[in-house]
UniProtKB/TrEMBL annotation:
It comes from Ligilactobacillus ubinensis. The gene is atpC. Residues 9-86 form the ATP synthase F1 complex delta/epsilon subunit N-terminal domain. The keyword Transport applies. GO terms for molecular function: ATP binding; proton-transporting ATP synthase activity, rotational mechanism. Gene3D superfamilies: ATP synthase delta/epsilon subunit, C-terminal domain (1.20.5.440), F0F1 ATP synthase delta/epsilon subunit, N-terminal (2.60.15.10). Its main location: membrane. Belongs to the ATPase epsilon chain family. It is a peripheral membrane protein. Keywords: ATP synthesis, Cell membrane, CF(1), Hydrogen ion transport, Ion transport, Membrane, Transport. One of its GO terms (cellular component) is plasma membrane. This is ATP synthase epsilon chain.
Length: 139
């Protein structure tokens, strides 16, 4: 009998490879919604949201990786994710993310008061990154 097909998953950032595995299911959030990738899925290219990537390891378990946006590309049963930053759940420093959240909230308040639209947008993205890390590490 032929072995069941699997997907090879690679998550890379400018600092190098963060995660590599093979699996039969990956679930990630694109900017237009959630997508589940199984072996032999059609070739796909999509922008990723600041969210989690879930990689099934056993029937009921998933590895979770926080990604701060980026792109996913799937073809020939290889899923490549290129993200500006990514952390495996167990590598997330929750206290650091909490401090980043507080800093971002403060920046948002200041940007609102000074009507600084660019700074407001940057601070909101920082806040989303921090909340994403906190929510993944707290699971
Ligand atoms: P901070 O203000 O705490 O640096 P940030 O959102 O500005 O947070 P990034 O620019 O997204 O940080 O990431 C810089 C580097 O630090 C990346 O390698 C990223 O993986 C890592 N990193 C950021 N926050 C955390 C965290 N809470 N736990 C573990 N690694 C983190």
């Amino acid at each position: 009998m032929d072995a069941k097909p699997t997907i090879v998953v690679n998550i890379v950032t400018p600092d190098g490879s963060v995660y590599e595995n093979s699996t039969s299911l990956v679930v990630c959030k694109t900017t237009v919604g959630e997508i589940g990738i199984m072996p032999n899925h059609i070739p796909t290219l999509a922008a990723l949201a600041i969210d989690r990537v879930r990689v099934q390891t056993t029937e009921e378990k998933f590895d979770e990786i926080a990604v701060s946006g980026g792109f996913m590309e799937f073809s020939d049963n290889t899923l490549s994710i290129v993200a500006s930053s990514a952390e495996k759940r167990e590598d997330i420093d929750t206290n650091r993310a909490q401090r980043a959240k507080e800093r971002a909230e403060k920046r948002i308040e200041e940007a609102k008061q000074t009507h600084n639209v660019d700074e407001l947008r940057r601070a909101e993205v920082s806040l989303r990154r921090a909340i994403n890390r906190i929510s993944i590490s707290n699971k």
